[in-house]
Amino acid sequence: MLFIRAVRAAHSAPLMLDPKLIRETPDVVRAAIAKKHLEVDLDAVLAIDAAWRNQLHEVEALRGKQKSANTAMAALPKGSPEFQAKLAEMRAVAAQVKELEARQKETEEKFRTAMLSLPNLPHASVPEGRTPEQNVVFSTHGDVTAVSTAAKPHWEIAGFEKLFDFARGAKVTGAGFPFYVGDGARLVRALLQFFLEEDTKAGYLEVAPPIFVNAASATATGQLPDKEGQMYETTPDHLYAVPTAEVPLTNFFRDEIVDEAALPICRCAYTPCFRREAGSYGKDVRGLNRLHQFDKVELLKWVHPATSYQELDKLRDDAERMLRKLELPYRVLLMCGGDLGFAQSKKYDLEVWSAGQKRWLEVSSCSNFEAFQARRAQIRYRVKETGKPELVHTLNGSGLAVPRVLAALLENNLQADGRVKIPTALVPYFGKEFLSFA
RNA sequence: GGAGAGGUGGCAGAGUGGUCUAUUGCGGCGGUCUUGAAAACCGCUGUGGGUGCAAGCUCACCGGGGGUUCGAAUCCCUCCCUCUCCGCCA
């Protein structure tokens, strides 16, 4: 039932790539898809497209016939023999239209489904590569070796379970839904406040969005139909708990035309994020590394296509700045073609150094979607010179995700006496200089 | 949750089966007049698809979906949303 709804929403939505791009320069599209190391039968898509256009022409010709017959019949007296003759003739045409239209709609649905299988095309600056190992280390910040001797994984810190109560969370809800208690809760609140203040200072307008969305919204940002099993879904209203604030935020301007002068539009939003993480059990799930519910501030931009890559650099730097202020060592990865998401044109990952686990934790992912999401969500701006609407480019990135920043902070700042030193920039928000597990 | 009223272009607001190719007004754009502006007057006005080098031509769109009919903004079914009143409630 729900699946049908979702699919219907997807098909009524416009396509994700410009069909003209595929018709006119199929080789460019083929090369771009190859860079993402995805298997797509473009020729099949083109064949369906050609069939659909043929059928469209047939239907249009018949509809034109109906239209002119209409005006003719309107001028004739109802009972006249001419009227009767025309009526009989048009009865047959109507039946034909009905049949052809049904066939054409069927083909159109096939075409849309095929189009949904086509990924967004990677930007020219995206490095070649198939696996995560082939991502490029774009930059590294801070000293990774300095704090590594005394550190231990955060879940092994004495008293950890008092502030981060996983056992009771599991009892009350399930695994991956911890309670944050005392200084634990206080630190979460301090980080969120810090992030929102920093983002607001950087020019992002704060928004508190709904944390449930409908199927149409989830489809526009690409959660549906592909990732349906990754979201929590409500009964009986069939709403989805947001996996990220990106979903409600991006949909804010869905089906709207914004002012060209208003671009770039920059917004930030805190929401809890809900992810089922189906299929990821047993892997990197200890402690705060991977949760079903976590807190995150998301950064989102709607920009003019001409400036979207400069805006991506700025967005990435806005996210990075917070890690610098928190004095956490981190690195920036530039994702290679094979590790880029389906919808992204270019993506940077920010990874914070986890001194106790001795590994990098992803805390932000900054992406340019170009017009991919905007086409699906029909978000456009009016070009002043031509007066015509054009698709905006959308960008987003975390700014930042709380639990992994928290994990790194606990591990990197653990003192010999068992307390955790709060970074100077965070002290005004936390209210004290040390977090205590006692 | 109950009862009622509605949903039409950027906005306001007509239209209840047939030149609707959606009346009109406001706003916006262009022009005439003017030293300049205002006023007045004249013209233009949305979105998407297909086709074409282009001008253009063509089809669809009156909240969404479906149906009746030769023909639907208009009639029927269904879903969504808004407003008013009642009830409940943080």
**Quaternary arrangement of the chains shown?**
single chain
Q: How are the strands ordered across the major sheet?
A: 1-10-11-12-15-9-8-4
Our Rg estimate from Cα atoms comes to: 27 Å
Instruction: List how many beta strands DSSP finds.
Output: 17
Structural class: alpha+beta
Q: CATH superfamily of the largest domain, please?
A: Bira Bifunctional Protein, Domain 2
Number of domains: 2
CATH topology annotation of the largest domain: BirA Bifunctional Protein, domain 2
Number of helices: 14
In a nutshell, what does this entry contain?
40% of the residues lie in helices and 19% in strands. The chain has 438 residues and is of the alpha+beta class.
Please characterize this protein's 3D structure.
The N terminus is likely disordered. The chain folds into 2 domains: 115 residues, Helix Hairpins; 304 residues, BirA Bifunctional Protein, domain 2. The radius of gyration is 27 Å and the shape is elongated. Strands 1-10-11-12-15-9-8-4 form an 8-stranded mixed β-sheet. The chain has a 3-stranded mixed β-sheet with strand order 7-13-14. A two-stranded antiparallel ribbon has the order 2-3. The chain is built from 14 helices and 17 strands. By secondary structure, it is of the alpha+beta class. The longest helix has 36 residues. It binds one RNA strand of 90 nucleotides through helix 4 and helix 5.
Main traits of this protein?
alpha+beta, BirA Bifunctional Protein, domain 2, 2 domains, 3-stranded mixed β-sheet, RNA-binding
Provide the fold topology.
Blueprint: H1 2-12, H2 19-24, H3 26-35, H4 42-75, H5 81-116, E1 136-141, H6 160-163, E2 164-165, H7 166-172, E3 179-180, H8 183-201, E4 205-207, E5 212-213, H9 215-220, E6 240-241, H10 246-250, E7 256-258, E8 265-274, E9 293-303, H11 308-325, E10 330-334, E11 346-354, E12 359-368, H12 372-377, E13 379-382, E14 389-391, E15 393-401, H13 402-412, E16 420-421, H14 427-430, E17 434-435
Parallel strand pairs: 4-8, 7-13
Antiparallel strand pairs: 1-10, 2-3, 5-6, 8-9, 9-15, 10-11, 11-12, 12-15, 13-14, 16-17
The protein binds one RNA strand of 90 nucleotides through residues 8, 12, 14, 19, 53, 56-57, 59-61, 63-64, 66-67, 69-71, 73-75, 83, 86-94, 257, 387, 389.
